[in-house]
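Hi D.,

Good news: the full-assembly prediction came through. Inputs first.
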Amino acid sequence: MSIRGKVARDVTDTDDSAERKLLDDMLAMLPRLRRFAYGLTGSASEGDDLVQITFEKAMRARSQWQPGSRLDSWLFRIAQNAFRNELRSRGRHAAYLQAVEPHQVSAVDGRTIVDDRARFASLRAALGRLPDEQRVALLLVAIGNHSYAETAGILELPIGTVMSRISRARRALRGMLDERPEPNSPQDAEARP
Amino acid sequence: MTTPTNRTEAEWAALDGELDQALDDGLDESGERALRARIEAQFAERRRPPRTAAVMPHVYRAAAAVLLLACGALAGYLLAERNLEARIAALEEGRRIDTAAMERAVNEALESRLSGQTVRWQNPATGASGTITPVRTYRARNGQWCREFTRNWVRPGGTDQLRGIACRQDDGRWLQRLTLSDREG
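Then the structure:
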């Protein structure tokens, strides 16, 4: 075999296996990225589309990732940039649709929704009512397991700004959860089937 | 003096954990499998076609050959790059059209169909389709009419089943107010 042929084959083999390895490492982070994207977009299907776009962009820009640095941080950064661009290009929120207080819709068919799942649904709805910039910062910490400093790096913001956004986000979430009325309280009785 | 701060940090950490659980609760594993399959398919597709290795007669020209190869690779890379851009754009455009069709169908179903009656939509361009069925109607405390509905969104990658509640705005638009469940399969 000519030298050129050999060089070409070696380069291709190394490229392919390195690419495969990178993809496998990325796929290991899929569940966390899904939760992050779901939290950002407010919809499972929009979130999964965002994750797919994130993978596509990451594989395309894989040379920009420095081995040894946190792969997950790099992916979260790509995901949040894609989300921001998407929002800007569409000029509207995807699924969050500026919801009213969830407890205003308090009973369905006479049954009051009471269980963890309702609490989780309330929490997701409350998350959806946060301003985008607060939600992104909080999710990078809560789902992405990033420190405030790492989050500031990803968002390219001063750490003080990030900390105050996260703190406001958490207080708002706590407040929205706490103002949920007790299940079965008389005021819920007016909903009609 | 550090105790109150610590307690607050711990409380916030608990809230973060609950948020993580809440998001996990809204997703399911079959959706994850479908997404994994989509990503694998995308990866298989984006792999560059094998480069053809032309035979060079003289070893001393190896350096020039490598240079040529690099130029070819660059050209191929740029071409692939363009294709990828186009694919991402097509993906986003298709989804935008699907979403618009779905939103029109939701509004029609909630505005003018009885509970139990289904409205369908489809987009042959992306292969996506969906159904929206109002389930029941009731009145929220603020006087708005609200309807619980189910929405199926069938895409080549899988089906997204959502159950939610939307309320009618004064201008006749229905806005989704609550997601009761959202699963993929």
